[in-house]
Please model this.
Amino acid sequence: MTGTTLDDYTDRYARRVRGMTASEIRALFAVASRPEVVSLAGGAPYIAALPLDAVGEMLGRLGSEHGVTTLQYGIGQGTLELRERICEVMALSGIDASCGASPEDVVVTVGGQQALDLVARLFLDPGDVVLAEGPTYVGALGVFQAAQAQVVHVPMDDDGLIPEALETAVAELARAGRRVKFLYTIPTYQNPMGVTLSEERRERVLDICERAGLLVIEDDPYGQLGFEGDAPRPLRARRRDGVFYLSTFSKTFAPGLRVGWILAPHAVRDKLVIASEANILCPSGYAQAAVSTYLGTMPWREQLKVYREVYRERRDALLAALEDLMPAGTTWTRPTGGLFVWASLPDGLDSKAMMPRAIAARVAYVPGTGFYADGTGTGNMRLNFSFPTPERIREGVRRLAGVMEQDIAMRRVFGGTVGRPGSRRGQAGADTPGPDLA
Ligand code: PMP
Model:
């Protein structure tokens, strides 16, 4: 079909494709990954902290000595050996046999992302409502959008999802006759806010969902990356029914292997496997063997400590730099684990409109709008601290603060919201709020 234009395909797209747009993060990757740019965007773990020689040797042997099995097709649910190891990993967080966790009910997935996709395939019809934190993980928004579901955000504060707001949202949706299928939540070291749902709120959130007949999709990629002692126990450790527990080795080992999992209620385990087989036939045997051998033969608990140490130091560097350098009126979260800080900008600054100026100043972040389904978040940004070194983090914040100071100065001169379409440049009045601030 030479000479075919984009328009020739538009009419043929399935309805679910129409709402698909490139994620803000993906669009930024091309520029943000240039070496001169300090990237506080992205969410990459610091892979250089792994014992790469030993991991490389192990990977080589998996091919040369065990290739006959590791390079062959496998079963859709994933190898028993890996599912047993996954249960050992979950037991560290308190999800163990006493709350019904068993290798039988684990389904191995291609990263945490396929786990989300499978849950959506299993439960979402077009028009269904998904409740999710506001802001929430950008990749989950993409999955729910592809399923033609509507995401309704529930606000958060420093203790995570606000139970009263959840109750209100549930009641309003019930009154409107909307079909809500589940709450999608990242209770521990949330992406993008870095906050953690408090002990007390965990029970309340579970109670509200139980009463409303909502399933709970608990996404927990970061729970073992705490810097200040253990996180509260996961939701799945408190309830065995109605909670789907999703996690991944992407942040605790290596995202390049693309291995994650779902611990599902027993009754739906088979449906998940069937959906996964339709999707990918089976997860990579080689990647599964890499993870199970890593967990079986290498000091993975020690490695978790290494990651925590590295990230704690970088979190401290980011918080100190923000404290020292950010313009007045900027606020941010103080995560006790995970990879991200969420910043709120002084009134009138627009993180999306500011992005090209930030890139020109050689710093990148993710504008807050990427984490909402409804365009909220212009006054926020997500800052990652896992990948850049402490020195680069400080330099990045210095550059970012410079760009923000400039925007604030411009706003003082011209009024309105700097750079946002519709802002009326050249308007008088130093502190006169422009039309965008109404
Ligand atoms: N859920 C959350 C909350 C995440 O932050 C991520 C990755 N950033 C994923 C799922 C997907 O993980 P994976 O890379 O294993 O697919």
In short: The chain has 15 helices and 14 strands.
